[in-house]
Amino acid sequence: MHRLNWDDLRFVLAVAEAQSVAGAARQLGVNHATVLRRIAAFEDSVGTQVFDRTPRGYTLRPDRLRLIAAAREVGQAVGTLRLLADGMDAPLGGHARVTSTDSLCQTVLPEILSEVRGKASELQMSLISTNSHVNLSRLEAELTVRPAPVLPEGLIGETPVEMHFAAYAAPGCADLGWLGFDGTMRRSRPWLWLEPQIEKHAVVASADSFLVLRELAARGVGKAVLPVFVARNDSRLQRLDIALPEDLATPVWVACHEDLADMPRLIRIRKLLCEALEMRAALFAA
Predict the structure, then answer these.
(1) pTM of the model
(2) Which residue, 7, 32, 86, 123, has most beta carbons within 10 Å?
(3) Which is the CATH superfamily of the domain at 88-163+250-284?
């Protein structure tokens, strides 16, 4: 076995996760040839072939699953070590990646990140918009701002605000059918409450985004349960006199992976994000 280049692990894991060289190249922002070269270098280092070359592309060999699992653990450890080294006694600068839902990314978070930048001009922030949970243990992002009843295992954070909900429809559309939740939103508190209340045929359309549901409602497709902060200032919608349970309110977490929780830089950024959200508590309230 030759000396390993730990950075090659990123390419191996990306191909294993994407299940294709092209998908790994898109994920890593490199070209196809670079991925092939780094895979070949890793296989040469460990002295064994990790992927089968087939007409359909690179596929992980079944007998290499344990190797990939070990590589994933090493990759996590190396990434954590780098972040810890960067954060110790460092000024509030560098690059911080924050993931959140599209609803928050397209409403309150741009203004909040602008305020944070005003207090830390050397800090560069990336806002990653996705309604799927980003794996912080794989360091796809350092921080998450995300509504959830409880934090997933391995994350530590605070809940500066709660996200409240109400029913909305376009004027004259209160008697239309309901708009349903799709994708990961089917596990949300509002849908777990609403679904048993309605007949399946009463769902006229569905979406996996509150922003899309808002647009469907505004165009008269149906009525929707929406976060108050998403709909309250939309002149195309009217709030309906439908009583929703108080326990639909969902905490909004500002969190990071437990291995990074003591990094001074991330502690300060979390504090700034929490303070900014607390200042906007009225926007989220029912």
Answers:
(1) 0.67
(2) 123
(3) Periplasmic binding protein-like II (3.40.190.10)
